[in-house]
Amino acid sequence: MHVVIPLFPRYTALDAVGPYEVLQRIPDIDVTFVGHRRGEVRSDNAMLGMVCDAAFAELPRPDVVVFPGGHGTRALLEDDEVLDWVRNAHAHTAFTTSVCTGALVLAAAGLLDGLTAATHWRAADLLNSLGARYTPDRVVEHLPQRIITAAGVSSGIDMALRLVELLVDADAARAAQLMIEYDPQPPFDSGSPAKADAATKARALEYFGRRH
């Protein structure tokens, strides 16, 4: 089973690395990072570089796509190379998935037309404008269409565990969860807009503005 995770300038690191850490635990799953070209790509704050080991053209028919998000997804919405690759890959995948604003790319490629989808809460209106219907759920599945979308950043871990269940079985997913000791017990309960108070939202938006 071959999973590909695209990288692009200004991707969000955990969007890619979270699912990677889950999926690569399964012996029958191989993960490759792909991009416009081989080589290093810097994250959304430019502090972290990761390496693409293949170009899109080298892997046209992966078994699974996990498209991460990040501020750099906006530039991909009119990138014909990426959008054509997504469309063509989806014709052959077992599942095409996204994390955070990776859903915007799936939507721009026409894969989410009329479907509910998850993305980062700040991108809800943009996702709707691309033909999908935003929902605040953490993971949204459309199994007949072979599409799964996850909300912001950390939700990619949840999505990847569900993906392991679908690709292998529930015991494999539980084993992967144990291997990464994924047992969240955060000290705060402000991980969604519905739970965060006004001061927390204001601080988050301030930080977003300063980083992007």
Characterization of the model:
- This protein is an alpha/beta fold and 212 residues long.
- A seven-stranded mixed beta sheet has the order 5-2-1-6-7-11-10, sandwiched between helices. The chain has a two-stranded antiparallel sheet with strand order 3-4.
- It has helices spanning 13-23, 73-76, 80-90, 102-108, 124-129, 155-167, 170-179, 198-211; strands spanning 2-6, 30-35, 39-42, 49-52, 54-55, 64-67, 95-99, 116-117, 133-134, 139-142, 147-150.
- It is built from eight helices and eleven strands.
- A hairpin with a 4-residue loop joins strand 10 (139-142) and strand 11 (147-150).
- 36% of the residues lie in helices and 20% in strands.
What is the overall pLDDT average? Answer: 97
Query: Which regions are unreliable across 5 or more consecutive residues at pLDDT < 50?
Result: none
Oligomer: single chain
Main beta sheet, described?
A: 7 strands, mixed
Helix coverage percent of residues? 25-40%
Spatial gap, N to C terminus = 36 Å
Q: What's the tally of helices?
A: 8
Shape verdict:
globular
Query: From the helix content, strand content and strand pairing, which structural class follows?
Result: alpha/beta
Kindly state the number of beta strands. Answer: 11
| Widest β-sheet, arrangement of strands | 5-2-1-6-7-11-10
**What order do the helices and strands follow?**
EHEEEEEHHEHEHEEEHHH
Estimate the strand proportion.
15-25%
Write down the Rg. 16 Å
